[in-house]
Amino acid sequence: MSALYGVDETHDPALRSWVESANDPACEFPIQNLPFGRFREAADLDWRIGVAIGDQVLELRRIGLINHAEMNRLMRLKPETRLELRRALSAGLRAGSGQQARWRDALLPMARVQLGLPCQIGDYTDFYVGIHHATTVGKLFRPDQPLLPNYKWVPIGYHGRASTIGVSGQDFVRPMGQVMAAGAEAPQLMPSQRLDFELELGIFIGRPNAQGQAIPIEQAEEHVFGLALFNDWSARDLQAWEYQPLGPFLSKNFASTVSPWMVTMEALAPFRRAFERPAGDPPPLPYLDSAAQRAQGAIDVDLEVRLQTAAMRAAGQPAVCISRSNYADAAYWTVAQLVSHHSVNGCSLSNGDLLGTGTLSGPRPDQAGSLLELSAGGRTPITLPNGEQRRFLEDGDSVELHGRCERAGYRAIGFGACRATVLPAASTVANETD
Amino acid sequence: MSALYGVDETHDPALRSWVESANDPACEFPIQNLPFGRFREAADLDWRIGVAIGDQVLELRRIGLINHAEMNRLMRLKPETRLELRRALSAGLRAGSGQQARWRDALLPMARVQLGLPCQIGDYTDFYVGIHHATTVGKLFRPDQPLLPNYKWVPIGYHGRASTIGVSGQDFVRPMGQVMAAGAEAPQLMPSQRLDFELELGIFIGRPNAQGQAIPIEQAEEHVFGLALFNDWSARDLQAWEYQPLGPFLSKNFASTVSPWMVTMEALAPFRRAFERPAGDPPPLPYLDSAAQRAQGAIDVDLEVRLQTAAMRAAGQPAVCISRSNYADAAYWTVAQLVSHHSVNGCSLSNGDLLGTGTLSGPRPDQAGSLLELSAGGRTPITLPNGEQRRFLEDGDSVELHGRCERAGYRAIGFGACRATVLPAASTVANETD
């Protein structure tokens, strides 16, 4: 693994770009990052492949490093080839590069383009790697046994809906659904009263495996292209009523939001961490274990959730932070473990598949990745700086996820924002005339 | 609904085709059926759209009724346009038609072509409409409460894996996975010992809805193109260990098999039945109820499961019937109810989506749609005519699903076969050297 995604000259913190905005210390897209996304200049034009640099987007085909505009095709490249591409981008964007005159024509201000889903998404799987999330939520239902017996053995996951995944900036209507009130004899169709966000990372699969052929853990990261922020919106009241015995369905599939930039595994190389289980926990089964995983299976990403209510927006107030967490602290399973587990039964992962990590709550209550946790199941609302309170999301609320990798001796890199806004529920479809 | 998919002259049992094999009373594809599928003459050629007639495939573009070869595009047609297409096909294939000379050139023997997945599948959702299945399986886990409280209110469903759906004729390897033996302290990675089939129908979505816009039940069938046979292979031992709390995952996503022909809603019109709930059951919520649904929401399809073991194949013995069931008798929810429920929260259904019904077991034990039920959870094996016994599937077993609609006064139509074979598990991927 370390051979695949090692630290090299592209991570040198002294590197500066001729794109001046990239050198601002607050910029999330310095020359050490170089994430990939899709953009277009107008809704009737085709998506193109871009690389974020400072406040600009570099159009990849235009500089001649690739000869097509299909992100999914680019994501299939072998890791060695991707590494070459990264090195060429880094060299060409470096201050003093001879490419500057030519590449400048391939830059567009990010503020002037539309950013799309990072790729054409194949199947979407959501995992449940956040052990603090699983424990806290489990306690709400099973105070005496918060974690089920399989949790430390099986990377729990389930399939989700790919067609309703949107990109940052989307609005979605509050879902309608069946709600069974406590003590009621029958459920009612109504707008969800317990709408929530889930702070996750999304893992994009680049290289597929053939059906029937499991991916050994040593090769698992070769199949991964990069990470993005991911919000798996959840309607807790619909979920509570519908989810037995086959899992979440309408409570999750109305909308999910992903950030537009895929931060590559290459860019994340300096931010790897040892991955160790707490003493006393069972060791992973051999197909989920490797020396490389133990040495640096974790990825250190600081995460943040910000909320802006309609009242705040009207008053010109920016979103406020309501939770901070960290991927490496939150996750019980690594990226490679998820990929190996997903394929151990012969399941074929496809180019463009998206794996959600599950909610990445930290160990402390204020590090929770959902309102369900922050409000203790809706019992104790959180209070915002303007005095508003929230147990769950209200119409007009915008939720923004942020992610940032920092480490001494390296230039910090960021993920951009993953933002979406809740619209009021559509009027009921119930058929009154029949 | 009856206006959409009514009985007309294309269902006249007296109709005969100039394709002589279609007039054989045992033929599943008479002129009254006209199902759609994709075929090609060699693996390196593109898929084309075909209509099954007798033992032949009629290439649709070649006869000029459409000017492209994209099944998904055809499936988006409005129901009125699809009805026109059906009428034109019926007229042209009728004995004495003036098209005979020209259309004959567009026929290919079905035995000489490769049949593909009927369309490019979008998202795949599996439902759980078989109330006898849910009750029998529930009893194995909860003798005192076989049906969970939500069952008669919520059409229970969950998302599945689209990338591993194959077409009839496929082989797949027995899945590896974590199995927790009774009394064991740790799970083990091993080939599934409780591999099973599930007798289902697949519902293909033709017309999408926009995200945020629920589909009213009166319009639900407009979004449906047709039905096919569907086998949702299941590894019961993996499922038992992994499925809490988020539902089935690796126990289901290694393979599913669909039959190559989509029998259209138009073709099924004569086989509609009243849909009535047992006395004492709660009425469906208004968004799941309509007069048309009550009058003819059900579809009468006789279903059959056949098994051929490796020993039978070696001895030249054909597959034997191990279960018979009927869709209308098995299902607690109609096609329209599934579509409306799936979208009530604003979830967008896409062109090419596949909805599995769930296992369609009849009320009697010998009508079960899975070995889990037929063998009472693996306790009492079934005995085959050659003396072999089965609790669950063994390597080399082929399972074949069949479906047939019959009604007095109408020509019977069939679904073709949905067949697949279990191969031995791949060698373990466990990493022993690390």
Automatic annotation (TrEMBL), chains A, B:
Q: Which InterPro entries match?
A: Fumarylacetoacetase, Fumarylacetoacetase-like_C, Fumarylacetoacetase_C_sf, Fumarylacetoacetase_N, Fumarylacetoacetase_N_sf
**GO MF terms, alphabetically ordered:** fumarylacetoacetase activity; metal ion binding
Cite the binding residues for substrate.
Y128, R142, Q239, Y243, T359
Which residue intervals define the domain Fumarylacetoacetase N-terminal in the entry? 32-118
Q: Where does Mg(2+) bind?
A: D232, K252, S256
NCBIfam families linked to this entry:
fum_ac_acetase (TIGR01266)
Query: Pathway it acts in?
Result: Amino-acid degradation; L-phenylalanine degradation; acetoacetate and fumarate from L-phenylalanine: step 6/6
Q: What protein is this chain from? A: fumarylacetoacetase
Positions of the Fumarylacetoacetase-like C-terminal domain: 152-422
Q: Which GO terms describe its biological process?
A: homogentisate catabolic process; L-phenylalanine catabolic process; L-tyrosine catabolic process
Q: Which residues form the active site?
A: H133 (proton acceptor)
Which key words tag this protein in UniProt?
Answer: Calcium, Hydrolase, Magnesium, Metal-binding, Phenylalanine catabolism, Tyrosine catabolism
On whether Hydrolase is a keyword of this UniProt record, the answer is: yes
For the ligand (Ca(2+)), the binding residues are D126, E198, E200, D232
The yes or no answer to whether the keyword Magnesium is present is yes
